[in-house]
Amino acid sequence: MEIPFNITLLIILTVACGIASQVVAAYLKVPAIVFLLLFGILVGKDGLGLIHPNLLGSGLEVIVSLFVALILFEGGLNLELRELGKVSGSIRNLVTIGTLVTLIGGGMAAHWLGEFPWPIAFLYASLVVVTGPTVVGPLLKQVSVDRKIATLLEGEGVLIDPVGAILAVLVLNIVLNEGADPVGLFRDLVVRLGMGTIIGAAGGWILGFSLKRAKFLSEELANLVVLAALWGMFGLAEEVRSESGLMTTVVAGIVVGAAEIPELRLIRRFKEQLTMLGVSVLFILLAADLSLASVVALGWGSVLTVLSLMFLVRPLNVLICTWNSQLNWRQKMFVSWVAPRGIVSASVSSLFAILLTQKGINGGDSIKALVFLTIIMTVFSQGLTARFVAQMLGITSSSATGAVIVGSNPLSRLIGQIFKDRGESVVLIDTNEDGCKQAQTEGLQAYKSSALDTNVLEEAGLESVGTFLAMTKNGEVNLVLAQRAAEEFKPPRVLAVYPKSPQEKNNNNKDKVQQAFTTELNLKSWNQYLSDKEVKLGETVLKQLGFEFQKTHLKEMIKSGQFIPLLLERQGSLQVLSATENWQPGDRIIYLLHDPKPKLLKRLSGSQKTTLTIERHPAVEQVPIPSVALETDSEKIPAK
What we know:
Blueprint: H1 5-28, H2 32-43, H3 59-78, H4 81-86, H5 88-95, H6 97-112, H7 118-127, H8 133-143, H9 147-176, H10 182-213, H11 219-240, H12 245-257, H13 264-288, H14 292-296, H15 300-321, H16 329-337, H17 343-358, H18 364-393, E1 403-406, H19 410-421, E2 426-430, H20 433-441, E3 445-448, H21 454-459, E4 467-470, H22 475-488, E5 493-496, E6 514-515, H23 523-531, E7 535-541, H24 547-559, E8 563-570, E9 573-576, E10 588-594, H25 597-605, E11 628-631, E12 636-639
Parallel strand pairs: 1-2, 1-4, 2-3, 4-5, 5-6
Antiparallel strand pairs: 7-10, 8-9, 8-10, 11-12
């Protein structure tokens, strides 16, 4: 049967508008949902009238259900159980106690401020208890906050969606059947969540087991097998117990993600691409079907309802749920601010509006309009200000300090001492026992272990430090360690000492791992220089006047192989310099200069100690550096 042209055009325009929204959002570096809403309204029935979702009929519900299942599966797939364990108590409270707080607070606000009848008010509140990974995930990619906070918000967004969706269905049953038993409804909630969990856990384990054994599957076919299995589990759960499918997809995603499947990274990438397409299509369709007149008709009472949800209910929710957590007040404030509503609220409210209208109950369109008003206000206000709020509160990942350094050699210990003298935490990791003992002798914390052991990296505090630096004597090993650290822990700055042109083989990772110091570094030679005390340690400030000359001179010294810049201080933050760093006026650069004279003087004088001094070099202004102790096998050399 031939598909009507208008439906074909509807799908084409929907996908085109959705992808265009994603492109514009990526270019402007703002959450994509902002432009998805704008574009959807623009091409919808109250805009240009190009897209009419009602043409899809019952097919709209099918599209929404399948894409929401895919979105939640992808969210569960990306959850890190190790990270979740650190904030599990807060997530549990937000999904349970927090849901109740938002339900009661939102219902009271909608009744008293929005003047909705109690049943409709609580139905609205049940629809907005969710936050949603479709908004929170992209927002956190733009903002890059502390890893603990990101895990908390992502975990809440993924796990609360199925709970909120089932709760909304139960509240809808109360509205449609006034004599419904509350105890029975609560029992039904538990049964649906439990059934979804059992089917999701069993299906996810079978899928993970099959993918590990079926080595004959190509990458492309494995991706499609996962997609088919996901929708199969969702459909089975819906047949066994309606509305349990969303919980099934979340649990299945978590189980598959923890199954250590080969090439899991490729499966995640494929699901992320499908999720982006799903989010784009759903928001365009749902926003296009929104009546602006119904939103305007709500009046100022509904605006006050949303504001109370944002500034009263959410902060109270977070305060109660994180009372005994280890989060500080800045982190709690950010969690209180970031709670944008997403696709689950929009899709379920759209379906409820249709059901209420069919049952002859007034308020369906008003609820949909109020939910979309909530989405618009929370997404625009929180999505566009989250970066500023995170920076103001000082919880961005780029503000993290300290370092985890792999390899205990003279140069790595020198860098560790400089970090330590500034009061920042430093941990060294090495498989060589002598190197670890030397580091401990110099007052540095060291672990004798392989840096491939994630438990050791976790114990070293990699999830909360600002820098990971791999500088063993094997450059290829350094690159592998750095890539793994970037994928597993996502520290703000990941650097490694590796061969000059690994990009030819590692194009996919060059943005994650930076080459440390310079491309000219010979680690073995500089470690020998340090051991023989043939170096001078100094620092210079690049000034606006003569900046280009200074920079050019320093670059020429680097090429000579007798000078290496180690660290960069910019706006009070100390960082390990990368080979591609774009130097700026005002930067303070700490460097090492090869100078064999100290060793010669020591031999002539018979002295047992040599002091590193800072001498002036052409076009290099030198200023005092922090007190650093360089310790060799026989003596300690202070740099004044």
